[in-house]
């Protein structure tokens, strides 16, 4: 049921691709201001879960509320009443999203990427939109690159533009889908720094990541997923310091070995 | 026969006419292709199916058939077009099929994530097509669009050659404005033919 105190609440969410079930009765709540990292092996359903939260991947069962408002279906997925484009856009409005592969629009300069939604959706004039976009770019340290096209930027810079684009429309929460997985190791840091600054500003964030160090430092909560279910959910010190399940212990061990 | 100034003039005139008709025909084809391509991509069967049938027919049928239906069959349903207009309209409707298929491919080549990013920002479907998908697709499709345009020009020339043959066979269509191009072609071809002995070797292959 709608619950206004949670930023994001997913209840009994299931999702299947054909016969393959990727999410089984997942319950997840995120409070306002919380930074939640989702970790887990490939194919465990973490990206799918994140995408269902934004209804980019429609869930087959359960319901998801974003700041108290249901997203995607009306009355739970079982009712099969899909929201109209407008309803969905309204439900999504508090959410921003950052993708693994950036998905900047290649035919626009960085600043136009950031300003487009302000002009098209928020009714800002070209000048207003550019001012806001420029501020957002400055915030992620890209003021001097504002007038470059995406192909002139490095991966880390592109991802920072993508973060600025998500930020510019002042979302109440941002979802990150493996934001550093497509980056050169050297460029990961600059993106994580921007994310850390956002977390310090009190932004609500849900981050699917393989960066254990970042999760340990920046997250308020870490969620470990495997085989489409949430296996463990707790503060980072608990998850990394005192894993309860054998599966999580195994997972942490292999990722530590790989880190060396 | 030698190259006279009249022949040369006719040749240039014919070239101009071909270029002019191709230009307008291509523009019409492109204008028709955009909505067609969008229909082809629709999830709704009743939108995509008719578009698919149209595209397959236009890509399968010969241009000459379409032009004959339009020019000789048109008047029977009250559609009277002058020869150049019939040529342009025919070329436009014919080319639209192939162009729609190219545009569809171009639109499909836009990464889904680019569209998802737009919808996450609240940009609606229509604005996304206009501001994000079409500008990207245009860049992808320019080379194949030019290739297809050249194919259209050649198709058009072949058609003119058809009429040229018919002129000789029936000998009664002189004065038909439809055959203006053919006359030009015949002059041009015979000039060249004097040197090359095979007039079909010119632009038409």
Instruction: Kindly report the average pLDDT value of chain B.
Output: 78
Element order, helices and strands of chain A?
Answer: EEEHEEHEHHHEHEHEEHH
Shape of chain B: elongated
How is the biggest beta sheet of chain B arranged? Answer: none
Count of separate DSSP helical elements of chain B: 7
- In helices, the fraction of residues of chain A equals 25-40%
Biggest interface, residues from each chain: A-B, 25 and 19 residues
Our estimate of the beta-strand percent of chain A is 15-25%
**Helix fraction of chain B?**
over 70%
Mean pLDDT across residues of chain A:
92
* Total E-strand runs of chain B: 0
Individual helix count of chain A: 9
- The total strand number of chain A stands at 10
Poorly predicted runs of chain B: 166-175, 192-205
SS content category of chain A: alpha/beta
Distance between the termini of chain B: 24 Å
Strand order of the largest sheet of chain A: 6-7-8-3-9-10
User: Which structural class best describes the helix and strand composition of chain B?
Assistant: mainly alpha
Q: In what range is the share of β-strand residues of chain B?
A: under 5%
- In N-to-C order, the SSE pattern of chain B is HHHHHHH
- Overall geometry of chain A comes to globular
């Amino acid at each position: 049921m709608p619950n206004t105190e949670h930023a994001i609440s997913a209840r009994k969410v299931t999702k299947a691709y054909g016969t393959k079930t990727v999410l089984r009765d997942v319950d997840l709540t995120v409070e306002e201001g919380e930074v939640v990292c989702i970790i887990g092996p490939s194919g465990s359903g973490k990206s799918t879960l994140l995408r269902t939260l934004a209804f980019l991947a429609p869930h087959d069962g359960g319901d998801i509320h974003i700041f108290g408002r249901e997203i995607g279906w009306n009355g739970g997925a079982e009712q099969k009443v899909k929201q109209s484009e407008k309803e969905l856009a309204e439900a999504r409005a508090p959410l921003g999203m950052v993708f693994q592969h950036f998905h900047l629009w290649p035919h626009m300069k960085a600043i136009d990427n950031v300003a487009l939604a302000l002009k098209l959706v928020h009714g800002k004039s070209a000048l207003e939109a550019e001012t806001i976009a420029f501020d957002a770019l400055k915030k992620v340290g890209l003021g001097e690159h504002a007038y470059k096209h995406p192909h002139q930027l490095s991966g880390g810079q592109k991802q920072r533009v993508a973060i600025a684009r998500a930020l510019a429309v002042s979302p109440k929460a941002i979802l990150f889908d493996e934001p550093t997985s497509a980056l050169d190791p050297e460029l990961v840091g600059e993106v994580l720094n921007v994310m850390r600054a956002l977390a310090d500003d009190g932004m609500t964030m849900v981050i699917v990541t393989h960066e254990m160090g970042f999760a340990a430092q920046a997250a308020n909560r870490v969620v470990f997923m495997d085989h489409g279910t949430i296996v463990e959910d707790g503060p980072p010190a608990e998850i990394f310091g005192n894993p309860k399940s054998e599966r999580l212990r195994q997972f942490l061990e292999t990722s530590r070995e790989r880190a060396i | 026969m030698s190259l006279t100034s009249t022949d040369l003039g006719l040749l240039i005139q014919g070239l101009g006419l071909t270029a002019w008709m191709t230009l307008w025909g291509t523009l019409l084809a492109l204008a028709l292709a955009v909505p067609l391509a969008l229909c082809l991509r629709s999830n709704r069967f009743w939108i995509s199916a008719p578009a698919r049938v149209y595209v397959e027919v236009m890509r399968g049928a010969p241009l000459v058939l379409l032009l004959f239906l339009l020019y000789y069959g048109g008047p029977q349903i009250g559609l009277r077009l002058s020869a150049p207009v019939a040529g342009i309209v025919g070329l436009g409707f014919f080319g639209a099929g192939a162009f729609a298929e190219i545009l569809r491919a171009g639109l499909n080549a836009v990464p889904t994530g680019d569209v998802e990013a737009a919808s996450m920002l609240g940009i609606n479907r229509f604005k996304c097509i206009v501001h994000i998908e079409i500008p990207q697709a245009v860049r992808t499709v320019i080379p194949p669009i030019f290739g297809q345009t050249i194919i259209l020009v050649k198709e058009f020339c072949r058609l003119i050659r058809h009429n040229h043959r018919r002129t000789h066979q029936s000998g009664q269509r002189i004065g038909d404005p439809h055959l203006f191009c053919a006359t030009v072609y015949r002059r041009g071809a015979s000039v060249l033919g004097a040197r090359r002995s095979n007039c079909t070797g010119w632009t038409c292959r």
